[in-house]
Fold this protein.
Amino acid sequence: MASKKASRRGFLKAGAAAAAMSAMQSAGAQAAVPQAQPQKSLKELVGYGERSHFVTSVRVPVVERPSPDQFGLIFHVLTPLQDQVGSITPSSLHFVGTHRGSIVPDFDPKDYRLMIHGMVDRPLEFTMDELKRFPSVSRVHFIECLGNHSRPEYTTVQQTHGLTSSSEWTGVPLSVLLKEVGVQKGAAWVVSEGSEEVKGAGSFRLAKAMDDCLVAYGQNGEPLRPQQGFPLRLLVPGFEGIYNTKWLRRIKVVDRYYMTYNDYGHIQKDEEIAALTFQWGPKSVITFPSGGQQLPGPGIYQLTGLAWSGGGAVRKVEVSTDGGQTWKEAEIRGAVHPKAHTRFGMNWKWDGQECVLQSRCIDELGQVQPTRAQLAQHFKVTPDYYKTHGVQGSDNMIQPWRVASDGSVHNAIA
Amino acid sequence: MRSLRGLLPVMILALCHAAWAQSPTYGLGRTPSAEEIRAWDIAISPTGKELPPGSGTAKEGAQLYTQKCAACHGTTGSGGPAPMLIKPQSASTSSGPCVAPCIREGNVMALHSPYATTIWDYINRGMPLSQEGTLKPNEVYALTAFLLYKNGVIQEDDVLDAQSLPQVKMPNRDGYALPEWKPGMPRPFSAKP
């Protein structure tokens, strides 16, 4: 309490000094040195910076459900991909997804614990400080919600693709922690669980847990944002978003699938569709020009977008500006990390004619991003099927944008 | 190819097991007590092995439902602001827009969930909304029995407890597949370049 008072007094003093200084300056050398009045709080100017008020890009709720809803729950919130540059999503604009809508919990990291138990030799509980005494890794990965699907009625890339984001995550490999507790013979799955009000939990295979999962406390150089699981979350790279348990409090090593509520939320009877559901395929989307944008007229533009894959690194991105008849390799503009958003782009000269733009991703496993027509052919349905049904598995279909001759850009999936 | 694919994970598993059977490298962390583990150990396996003692019937559940659930889920288990829990007798006269995740008719948990344990687990961890964790085990057994009875899965006087709950024959018991997964594995469908 005493220290709080002292610091508040310190803050007031600093404020008074700043005010006195600017008063002196404006009284003295009149218009000689233009002196901007500090309009912003010292908290922002010195403590924690905000973006320019000219930058207004924001997240919006998904079309299907308001956030907050009538129960005060935040459900799925879309990141504004159309406004982003590079390949990292600003932490404050990272999409939000919670299987059930959620109230953002407020955990004091001092009291926070992660428990690992079940089929292990030594059940253990770690504080945040203890977790930071393990060797850390920082890796760039996307997280994408299974709900990220394009529909003909969606108009912008935020609506068609806004449930994916990419960050640099810092934490301890789950495999290191699992070795520390000693996984027993017969173990085959893990259940991870959050500490928020609904204690969201899900199961996935031990082979994945031992491969590249991360118990993360950092995001883009600072602690996780509360909506992203502060103080601790799980990263299950390349798998659908729901596996990336936020507010992680517990990992139980088990011998079988648990069918928790989160697991139940995405069950698929068909084995092939189930496999197409849990791991993301190669995917890409053009973010400029994209739905809802307006080209001022013919001429040169930077066509750009993002590509990623749950199967590994992006090997190549191809772009078609003639509705898929011919394809040209785009430039990769930035770093390529496995299971991470990768920026691509190319010079593009628009001749003022109507055209359809699309991109396709080819990943390091050689997987090629399909069109809806190719998927329809594979599953022996007519393309009309998707007017009334979602695509089989997670939606990594090619996204076409139609540029009309007046320069307006529209969603062109049928 | 097929047989090799089958063998490889076994070999990898064998290798991994040898590697895992190690003593701790860092010696960090503290051993939780059996009591602390039990308090957090709330994910219920389909075998029901984490279920606590207690029991309940649909009759008991009906009362609890009216007191603690009906305000959000509707007095008949449908038509409320929260998702449908009981499939209506007659095809529902559209209860307005269905917010995501849209739950209706054949999709209600008692009919769609492959295991009754999932329902018990979710009510126990997540309901009633904003008063999570307040239900006693007997109440959760009773509410689960009520929802299963009202959807025609069990009889009105069936008693649910740690033994009988995992035995309930759920209509969608085989409604899910568990694909294999190995590092570097492609998905089963990809376009041709």
